[in-house]
Amino acid sequence: MLNMARSTEYTPQVADFICLRIANGESVRKICLDPDMPASSTIFKWLSEQKTFSEQYTRAREAQMEVMAQEIIDIADDGSNDTYVDDDGNMRTEHDVINRSRLRVDARKWLMSKLAPKKYGEKVDLNHSGEVAIKRVIADV
Fold first, then answer.
1. What is d(CA 70, CA 135) in angstroms, rounded to the nearest whole number?
2. How many CB atoms lie within 10 A of CB 51?
3. What was the pLDDT predicted at 115?
4. Residue 4 contacts by C-beta under 8 Å, 6 or more apart in sequence?
5. Rounded to 5 degrees, what are φ and ψ at 93?
6. DSSP string, the chain
7. I need a surface site. Which of 26, 52, 69, 127 has the fewest CB within 10 A?
8. How far is CA 15 from the centre of its chain?
9. Which is nearest to 17 in space by CA: 43, 41, 44, 51?
10. Which of 101, 140, 23 is nearest to 31 (CA)?
């Protein structure tokens, strides 16, 4: 952890640390809860003022999408809490855990589709293979 007071002054070291945390899956909001980190408004100001930081931030976001993709697989594959044994010794399905896992996956998929729509968004096929008929109507004047 860096030892510094909340600052508005841009430094490459702080920028590196912010981007490392983003690349590891943290949100800007969560990073800014750390008292050693600048406020989110400062980070967004730096993005418009510091070209190097903006490029670094973009690469960190791309890496963050890869982390989220792996998290989706991990969440989907983890069935360890999906069932339980009731007081009578019967195996039961824990629907709340399954639904929460589904929500966690869906939230990540939605965010990825918004932050990286070309890579993770819905593919829309706009090809049209039919005919278009044009009918000319002449009105009586």
1. 54
2. 9
3. 86
4. 14, 36
5. -85, 135
6. --------S--HHHHHHHHHHHHTT--HHHHHTSTTSPPHHHHHHHHHH-HHHHHHHHHHHHHHHHHHHHHHHHHHH--TTSEEE-TTS-EEE-HHHHHHHHHHHHHHHHHHHHHSHHHHSPP------S-----------
7. 127
8. 20
9. 43
10. 23
Structure token digits, residue 65: 């999408």
Residue with tokens 């981007």: 19
For 48-72, the pLDDT digits (tens) are: 999 999 999 999 999 999 999 999 9
Tokens of 109: 């998929």
